[in-house]
Amino acid sequence: MLSLHPVDIQEGRTDEMPLDIPGITTEEMERFLDFQLRHRLPCDDERALVMILRLGHFFQYEAAQVAAATALERLPSFSAVSKYALGLKFGIRRWVIDGFTALVSPDKHCQLTQAEVEQLELMPYHAIVQTRASIEAHRRSIAYTVPPMCHAKGCLSDIDCGVAWKLEWKNKVAAHLMHPEEAIRGQAILSMLEEKEIHEVSKTCRLGMVERIKESGVLTYEDQIIEQALRSLAPPE
Ligand SMILES: [Zn+2]
Q1: The whole model's pTM is what?
Q2: Which of the chain's termini has less CB crowding within 10 Å, N or C?
Q3: How far is the CA of 184 from the centre of ligand 1 (A)?
């Protein structure tokens, strides 16, 4: 019978027989030990900080994870893609929420490069594509369906007011919803309708319509689509 005693294991006992930990490079280990033993944190080196974060997570050293995450957040180069991808890998919920929201929000106009898609991997990338598609389909449906004007008491002219409302929606609201580079959030469109006068639309009619749209939730439904996706990507703790 063959047995293996600890005394027989030579790996990791000498420099000539190093212990091989699968999936961890020498550079990563050195960076990690530099932090653990010598308290060296390379604050402006994103790549090195990710190594410390990864090994901190692997060995479950909270101090290393917190220090690396805090330093990464301070780096101006730390992108939404990195935040989202690393947040998912290392269980940092706030990064998943911030990164994903920035990547799917219609007002951010985020174009992903091939390198970023590769960094994201299939499932996280699919979640972005699917959420963007749902938001776009919803926006298209609102852009081309003008909510019928419900005139308030004292409207000066039902006909002029109704026509002007329809034109405003088709020319401005639809453009804000569908513009490839200048689209704005549904919430911002709502504020714009609430605050800005529309030529020939009675103020009371306009404000009445804003209330109706608010109640229906149609312009803020995109926020719900994002929240829904985040419920499975970053479940509440
Ligand atoms: Zn009216």
Answers
A1: 0.85
A2: N
A3: 26
Q: List, in order, residues 6 or more apart from 168 with CB less than 8 Å away.
A: 198, 201
Q: For ligand 1, a single-atom ion, which residues have Cβ within 5 Å?
A: 151, 155, 161, 202, 205
What does each of the 237 residues of the chain score in pLDDT, given as a tens digit?
455 555 566 666 777 777 677 788 889 999 999 999 999 999 999 999 999 999 999 999 999 999 999 999 999 999 999 999 999 999 999 999 999 999 999 888 788 999 999 999 999 999 999 999 999 999 999 999 999 999 999 898 999 999 999 999 999 999 999 988 889 999 999 999 999 999 999 999 999 999 999 999 999 999 999 999 999 999 887
CA of 151 to the centre of ligand 1 (A): 4
Distance 100 CA to ligand 1 centre (A): 41
Q: What is the whole-number distance in angstroms between the Cα of residue 152 and the centre of ligand 1?
A: 6
Task: Give 167 Cα–ligand 1 centroid separation in angstroms.
Answer: 14
**Distance from C-alpha of 122 to C-alpha of 205, rounded to nearest angstrom:** 48
**In sequence order, which ranges of 122-173 are alpha helices (DSSP H)?**
122-143, 158-168
141: CA distance to ligand 1 center in Å? 24
- Distance (angstroms) between ligand 1 centre and the Cα of 211 equals 14
Counting beta carbons within 10 angstroms of the beta carbon of residue 80, is it exposed (0 to 12), middle (13 to 18) or buried (19 or more)?
buried
